[in-house]
Amino acid sequence: MYVNASALDALSTIQAVSANNLANMNTNRFQASRVHLQEQAQGGVRVASITKDPTPGPLVPEQRLVERDGRVEQEEVLVPASNTDPVREFTTMVATKHAFTANVKAISARADMLGTLMDMQA
Q1: How many domains does the chain have?
Q2: Does residue 59 sit within a domain?
Q3: Collapsing DSSP states into helix, strand and coil, what is residue 111?
Q4: Is residue 85 part of a domain?
């Protein structure tokens, strides 16, 4: 059951990171995050790290205020847009949901088997 519980914990983190990436996909300069998992010696997985995706987003125009000769003016500059790929994030979220469901069912089946075993011994 530990293996499934550790998977649920890791999958929850993956889902949260993908949701954060999607929530910020329209934020200039935002870099999507990636979750890296690591197998554990006793079985199961854990989140080894969460890193920023270094892939640059496309350049988009942005207005900023600058002071010139005592006056404030608007200036258009190019800044990197978010590098979030919504297709990748939605695909990750769907796969994560299915993996989560499978692990919950495995835990439930194990609990049912333990209940049956205890009923047989009673």
Answers
A1: 1
A2: no
A3: helix
A4: yes
